């Protein structure tokens, strides 16, 4: 079991003290420029890969970085409400949907549903990505497992960008150029990030 007492102490004595003025400004309000929608995977650390400070990113994380299509409901909608708050209250200027390599959620799309019977809530959540599997099947001409994994993760990102455009207030801001939607595919083993180019329909190496 990992103990956090020493880690918290080091944070207070080093990182916090080194940035005391910055944290002081954040004490009463936040003004993030970007909503980062990423996977809950422990290997994906948004502030690390974007090199951002506290206060810059409003972060939503869930299994396979999914975005439910817009709907009004009496249910408790965690991801939807976080998106709503970031766009309507915090007025973020960017939304990044960040997928990643070796994504367990994307891999689970190809599992027999019976193999996921012991995680029923996860299985239900992954229904949001059902269209991804269909599109990969239509697109991929080979039986190469690595190619299928890569394509599933990337098409999943583009599908979630499409889902974001079903939110009326997001579509309006995007069309008025007040909000930018960005799709990333982060490669854990290399640190490379590929950004979706809507014009070409391809993911291109960012900063390469």
Task: Walk me through what this model shows.
Its cofactor is Zn(2+). It is an enzyme of class 4 (lyase). GO terms for molecular function: carbonate dehydratase activity; zinc ion binding. With 208 residues, the chain is an alpha/beta fold. It has a single domain, classed as Carbonic anhydrase (Beta-carbonic Anhydrase, Chain A, 3-Layer(aba) Sandwich). Helices cover 42% and strands 17% of the residues. It contains 9 helices and 6 strands. The chain has a 6-stranded mixed β-sheet, covered by helices on one side. A hairpin with a 6-residue loop joins strand 4 and strand 5. Helix 7 packs across helix 8. The longest helix is centred in the C-terminal third of the chain and has 20 residues. The model has no long low-confidence stretch (mean pLDDT 94).
Distance between the termini: 39 Å
Radius of gyration: 18 Å
Report strand order across the widest sheet.
2-1-3-4-5-6
Number of domains: 1
Q: Note poorly predicted spans.
A: none
> Based on DSSP secondary structure assignment, what is the total number of beta strands?
6
Percent strand: 15-25%
Mean pLDDT: 94
CATH topology: Beta-carbonic Anhydrase, Chain A
Please state the structural category: alpha/beta
The CATH superfamily title:
Carbonic anhydrase
What's the main sheet like?
6 strands, mixed
Series of H and E elements: HHEHEHEHHHHHEEE
Count, helices: 9
- The CATH architecture is 3-Layer(aba) Sandwich
Q: Can you give the helix content as a percent range? A: 40-55%
Which term fits the overall shape?
globular
The CATH class is: Alpha Beta
Oligomer: single chain
Family: Belongs to the beta-class carbonic anhydrase family.
GO molecular function: carbonate dehydratase activity; zinc ion binding
Catalytic activity: hydrogencarbonate + H(+) = CO2 + H2O
Protein name: Carbonic anhydrase
């Amino acid at each position: 079991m990992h103990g956090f007492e020493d880690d918290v102490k080091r944070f207070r004595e080093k990182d916090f003290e080194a940035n005391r003025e910055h944290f002081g400004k954040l004490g009463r309000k936040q003004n993030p420029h970007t909503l980062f929608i990423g996977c809950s995977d422990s290997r994906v650390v948004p502030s690390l890969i974007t090199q951002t400070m506290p206060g810059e990113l409003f972060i939503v994380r869930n299994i396979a970085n999914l975005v439910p299509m817009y709907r009004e409901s009496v249910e408790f909608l965690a991801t939807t409400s976080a998106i709503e708050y970031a766009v309507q209250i915090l007025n973020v200027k960017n939304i990044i949907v960040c997928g990643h390599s070796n994504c367990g959620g994307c891999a689970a799309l190809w599992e027999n549903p019976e193999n996921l019977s012991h995680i029923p809530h996860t299985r239900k959540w992954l229904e949001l990505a059902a269209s991804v599997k269909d599109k990969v099947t239509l697109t991929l001409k080979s039986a190469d497992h690595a190619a299928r994994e890569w394509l599933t993760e990337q098409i999943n990102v583009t599908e979630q960008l499409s889902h974001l455009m079903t939110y009326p207030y997001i579509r309006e801001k995007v069309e008025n150029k007040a909000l930018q939607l960005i799709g990333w595919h982060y490669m854990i083993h290399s640190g490379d990030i590929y950004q979706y180019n809507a014009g070409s329909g391809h993911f291109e190496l960012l900063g390469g």
